[in-house]
Amino acid sequence: MERITAKYYIETPNELEKAAHVLAGEQSSGTFVKIPGETEELKQRFAARVENITLLESVKEPSIPSNKVVATSYHRANIEISWSIENFGYNLPLLLSTLQGNLYELSQFTGLKLMDIDLPPSYEEHFNGPRFGIAGSRKSMDVYDRPMIGTIIKPSIGMSPEETAVLVKKLAIAGVDFIKDDELQSSAANSKFEDRVDAIMKVINDQADKNGKKVMYAFNISDELDNMLRRYEYVLKAGGTCAMISVNSVGLTGVKKICDQGKLVIHGHRNGWGMLNRHPLLGIEFTAYQKLWRLAGVDQLHVNGIQNKFWESDDSVVRSIEACLKPLFRGETLLPVISSGQWGGQAFETYSRTKTTDLLYMAGGGIMAHPDGPAGGVMALQQAWEGAVNGLTLEEARHQYAEFSKSVQKFGVKA
Amino acid sequence: MERITAKYYIETPNELEKAAHVLAGEQSSGTFVKIPGETEELKQRFAARVENITLLESVKEPSIPSNKVVATSYHRANIEISWSIENFGYNLPLLLSTLQGNLYELSQFTGLKLMDIDLPPSYEEHFNGPRFGIAGSRKSMDVYDRPMIGTIIKPSIGMSPEETAVLVKKLAIAGVDFIKDDELQSSAANSKFEDRVDAIMKVINDQADKNGKKVMYAFNISDELDNMLRRYEYVLKAGGTCAMISVNSVGLTGVKKICDQGKLVIHGHRNGWGMLNRHPLLGIEFTAYQKLWRLAGVDQLHVNGIQNKFWESDDSVVRSIEACLKPLFRGETLLPVISSGQWGGQAFETYSRTKTTDLLYMAGGGIMAHPDGPAGGVMALQQAWEGAVNGLTLEEARHQYAEFSKSVQKFGVKA
């Protein structure tokens, strides 16, 4: 029988072997006293198994403070626990409750993070995964030999549909491949969702008629389920190619239901992610996280960017990009969305560390606030990436490209 | 115009006023450079406002480690930020993305927790809240003068529908008010959901025909959306009164969609909660969390219990119970579900600290492993609560009640 294996990074004041077995027990048979009805046969078939324990360092203070634990030493380890798929089959919420449910509450742990998940082959038969992913996104935007260049409508919230459309037109003419709503914008008092779709798609369709290139616009359809389905249809009817969902806010079953419609590229925004990952010994690591959203069918997922304005380290960003690019099923991959304080200057380090252009490379202020306007901003980003792929340094590229040079002057103070 | 106010507990190496304004900026206008189109009028209408900052202590080490921050002092504070409801209206996922989105990623903070949310009066008109809550749960179980007593099917997973039904029959005869699936059980290889409903509801309906009391059974319908809706109907058709959802695993939009069906009591299981709350300066506090699930329509929500087997402190449990019992809209309240290592011994402390019997008081092993069997276990719990409400101490109650006395002997080693 197939098994699903989860990898955890843990910290415990207890004996490691014992702590791992408490976790496995809690997440399969689970109660605090031996009860009638729990036969050996049952245990063999449905019990979670401790597959591996790799001892790491010990520390003097617990990573997560606890009133209930008093100890002089806390032991860290990587552990692997497996479950038979007979326990939950292909039920994603049940998989989640099994892999990241009550185990976070166990007082036997002063730190616990879900690092990775190994899915069995039969999951490939049961889940479509991303319908579009990298290949479908490239095809829709007609961009093949460089990262797709995207931007975010800013200010995040406040502009009318008409003002937004004027900006979209400017960006489309400037040659941007992708534009997205901010995650704070969906349907505001002065910018109803449908009005925004009408105004924006008119501009995008007109521009596509003129030059054959349809900008991908990710409309933020995040809302209650029926509204999301209505908005999805509205975008589709208007000729749109993409819908954005705040995956943590909407939740797994809502996201899966939308992805299952299968006609629009799904742009997954991970806002709230810091809460799930920011502590080194609590929550979930991106490698595991992105697999869950791929099972749900998300095509594009945010990963922050090199030298981002947020807390996340460059090493973590690189690991996230690599996770997205690793095939899960049928060779399909997830398009990593690079953003947060990007302006082109980071293209060199990004390419040097990942050796890929399979990216949706997003800049907000980095495009909009370029001295030559959005056209200059888009051009500067394309130049930066051309330079990076050709092995130029940032300094070499700034001398070769006029628009990129202006970006360096404006945004590159710390570069 | 109405505003929504969120309270955060924060820690920052920066000047507090500045850090609070970075948060407000990121969660409304949001970019790292000044851009054209951002007028003062726009800002006034849609910008988040810093309403209050209450300085607390400073510490020498950051609560959450960060490579990007080097400082000698980290300042803690309670802050309040408000948004106009013009920004997101009654869109719950947008509310979530606004209140707990990218802000967790800001490097300006080395700790950030959403503590509470103040909702404006018009939210009452737009959201039904729990359809059943405490009053509806009591009516369905026909229990008015004491806590509702519940139990969990254990082992969590592994029993056949028939074996489960035998156990349910024993529990129903024993006089239990409520039984639930474990969150790890929904439809396993040897226990299909529908078979389980058939077998269990036959027993429960038979028993109700005999003595007029229908045990509330919370079937775990957690799954993808269409399956959940199918299972919901299946439970309803079989005469069931309750469905259980793992709220974090299913997600906000899926949970809301199920609650909106309005015919079954919704038992909200919060497994995964430790990940969101366990760190004192990361995530979300229960006071805020339970309001979101009330908006979605959940009727019953887990809060752990006094002297639970998990990490959570008694103080935190008491605060959670109080939060559930505080009316949100129309005087409606949320039924707190007490569980984790409960056996009746905790009734005294629970009652003394909360002065309420508006509880669903759950014991797993505490009922099943009672020396006299489940009937003794249920009776012992009722006795413990009767004693607690009458002002007896545990010691006094053990001398008064035979079954409770046996519980003390079996489970009360530490009491």
TrEMBL record, chains A, B:
Care to name a GO molecular-function term for this sequence?
Answer: magnesium ion binding
Which keywords appear in this protein's UniProt record, sorted alphabetically? Magnesium, Metal-binding
The segment(s) forming the Ribulose bisphosphate carboxylase large subunit ferrodoxin-like N-terminal domain are 7-123
What cofactor does this chain's UniProt record say it requires? Mg(2+)
| CDD domains reported in the protein's UniProt record | RLP_NonPhot (cd08207)
Q: Which InterPro entries match?
A: RuBisCO, RuBisCo_large_chain_AS, RuBisCO_lsu_C, RuBisCO_lsu_C_sf, RuBisCO_lsu_fd_N, RuBisCO_lsu_N_sf
Ribulose bisphosphate carboxylase large subunit C-terminal domain location: 133-409
Give the GO biological process terms.
carbon fixation
Q: Which family does it belong to?
A: Belongs to the RuBisCO large chain family.
* PANTHER family tied to this protein: RIBULOSE BISPHOSPHATE CARBOXYLASE, RIBULOSE BISPHOSPHATE CARBOXYLASE LARGE CHAIN
Descriptive protein name: Ribulose-bisphosphate carboxylase large chain
